[in-house]
Amino acid sequence: MFKISIAAAALATTLVAVPAFAAEPEVGSFTYEGVKYDYTAEQKGDVKVLKGSAYAGKVPFELRVTKRAVTGRFNGRPIAFDVKEVKPLVNKATAAD
């Protein structure tokens, strides 16, 4: 569970850079601890939805980010944590813990 939360927190940090006014979903990817994450991010009202996969498409995820919390599923497992727990990645494209 701890590893999943770390990965989800890394994913959530990518949302900070997504503009709130974007009409089209943003498509992106980054690498964290040697694992590549591909995703789309879309604003739905006050919620930012991040959908994608890790481990070459083998591990799906969907995160819902509000001003206060991140909830969703990573590899079918539920996750939830406070946005305050998210630490920014050094470089979104090539972040290494």
Major sheet size, sense and barrel closure: 6 strands, antiparallel
Radius of gyration: 12 Å
Share of helical residues: 10-25%
Alpha plus pi helix count: 1
SSE ordering: HEEEEEE
Low confidence ranges: 93-97
The assigned structural class equals mainly beta
Strand content: over 45%
Name the descriptors.
single chain, disordered C terminus, 97 residues, 6-stranded antiparallel sheet, mainly beta
Please characterize this protein's 3D structure.
- The chain has 97 residues and is mainly beta.
- Helices cover 13% and strands 45% of the residues.
- It has one helix and six strands.
- A six-stranded antiparallel beta sheet has the order 1-2-3-4-5-6, with helices on one face.
- It is globular, with a radius of gyration of 12 Å.
- The chain starts with a helix and ends in a 15-residue tail after the last strand.
- 22% of the residues are buried.
- The C terminus is likely disordered.
Q: What's the structural blueprint in terms of helices and strands?
A:
Blueprint (H helix, E strand, L loop, with lengths): L1 H13 L11 E7 L2 E10 L2 E8 L4 E7 L3 E6 L2 E6 L15
Antiparallel strand pairs: 1-2, 2-3, 3-4, 4-5, 5-6
